[in-house]
Here is the input.
Amino acid sequence: MIELVSSKSYFDRPPKMKITKTTIVFLVVVACLTVVVCLPVVAQTIPNDLPEKTPATIIKQDGDRQTVVKKLKKPKPIPVLLPTRARVKLKDGHQRTGSVVSVNSQQIMIKRGEISKAEDINNIEQIKFDKSECCWWPNGIDIIVLRGVGVETIRKDRHFKVRANELVWENVEEKAIEIKPESVIQIDNRPIYTPNDIPRSMRNVQGHYVVSKMEHKEQVWIITAALSF
Here is the structure.
């Protein structure tokens, strides 16, 4: 009789490891304890003085609806120039000629030679500037120069509606003047509700808008100007 001898008996093999529910719970507990212990150490290695970044987008909540809106940069003020000679038509039928050197919510200042005279803005119908005359042109910081004889405008006229109580131009002969974006309510018959509604072509312009006409109606200035470089 031939006896079959196995190299290793079935019963001599090592028993397989059984994974019970108790083992699983133990492993999960160990993993959680490891995270709790190591987390403070990791947090200490992260600097907490990093500068906060302004989000590029904002989220508007309207009931259950969320809208992602791109956050736009606030437009810079619109730089303007006034020719040195103007004709001011008053509502009482009179006229004044000279340089408009100041504008505020109550009056404008007209200078002729060495004499300056104030006019109430409520008595002003129209200011017409002579574009063939020179302009006080900013040349660096706090330096104004009288530029040439006439300034050539290279673009078509644009029409700005600006709140009269927010338009302040003081000492035009000495200071650069501008239109603040938040004071504009309309451009070329296009309503402006916020500064970001201002057309992109008018943002951060390198030149200046040369004013040719200003009209005062119902506490609003209607300014006609064309871009020049």
About this structure: The helical segments are 21-44. Residues 21-44 form the longest helix (24 residues). Residues 78-228 form one domain. The radius of gyration is 37 Å.
